[in-house]
Write a structure and sequence with these properties.
The complex is a heterodimer of chains A (about 130) and B (about 70). Chain A has about 130 residues and is mainly alpha-helical. Chain A is built from 4 helices and no strands. In chain A, helix 1 runs antiparallel to helix 2 and helix 3 packs across helix 4. The longest helix of chain A has about 30 residues. Chain A is flat and about 50 Å long. The relative contact order of chain A is 0.12. With about 70 residues, chain B is mostly helical. Chain B starts with a helix and ends in a 10-residue tail after the last helix. The chains are: A mainly alpha (about 130), B mainly alpha (about 70). Chains A and B meet through helix 3 of A and helix 3 of B.
């Protein structure tokens, strides 16, 4: 197994494709909205494609984890739990601040890149699979 | 979990890479076991014991000692 975080070719290719679909879909929706031609007939299918890419990313991540040895699997789950906990906590805090304190609203899809960004950050620091 | 893995591996004159290959895990997993950053599953503990030709408890001393029922 290679040094560093283990990844399979399927994971790398799948991740690149899923993120390309996500970013391309997001760019298309923003462009269509700014251009004034965003209709439900365009918006819904693109939103579903973006959503499929999110689901696809978790599927390739799950398959990658399944192929890891027990140490990396434990480490990855630990990073995932920490990242999910922080991401959800931020969203909950922001949600209450938005509803009751007048803080500007942010789109819910932010939680997806937020989670993976946090996962990348915490994986630098978490090097033990132990509790 | 305390382990004598590093010591026993050195006594057998095999590298982390070699032990990893024999037990079907990554070199980092062996390193994490030696650095006590990972507690092995029973399955992995037995695989390592088989690879080193030593009883499991010689490599990974029972942390619960002789607490008998």
């Amino acid at each position: 197994m290679a040094e560093g975080w283990p990844s399979t070719r399927a994971y790398v290719v799948g991740s690149i494709l899923n993120w390309l679909f996500f970013l391309a879909g997001l760019a298309l929706l923003v462009w269509a909205q700014l251009g004034g031609f965003l209709t439900p007939w365009l918006g819904w299918p693109v939103a579903l494609v973006i959503t499929a890419s999110v689901l696809g990313q978790f599927i390739v991540a799950y398959r990658s984890i399944a192929a890891m040895d027990e140490y990396w699997r434990g480490l990855t789950f630990k990073c995932g739990i920490v990242a999910a906990g922080v991401a959800i906590s931020i969203c909950v805090l922001w949600g209450f601040a938005n509803q009751f304190l007048g803080v500007p609203a942010y789109p819910l899809w932010i939680v997806y890149p937020l989670f993976w960004g946090l996962f990348g950050i915490v994986s630098i620091f978490i090097r033990t699979s132990r509790a | 979990m305390k382990s004598r893995l590093r010591l026993l591996r050195a006594e057998h004159g095999i590298t982390q890479e070699e032990l990893a290959r024999r037990t079907g895990v990554s070199r980092q997993a062996i390193n994490a076991l030696e650095a006590e950053r990972h507690d092995p599953s029973l399955d992995l503990a037995y695989r390592i014991a088989a690879a080193l030709g030593a009883p499991v408890e010689l490599i990974f001393p029972n942390p619960h000692g002789d607490r008998s029922i």
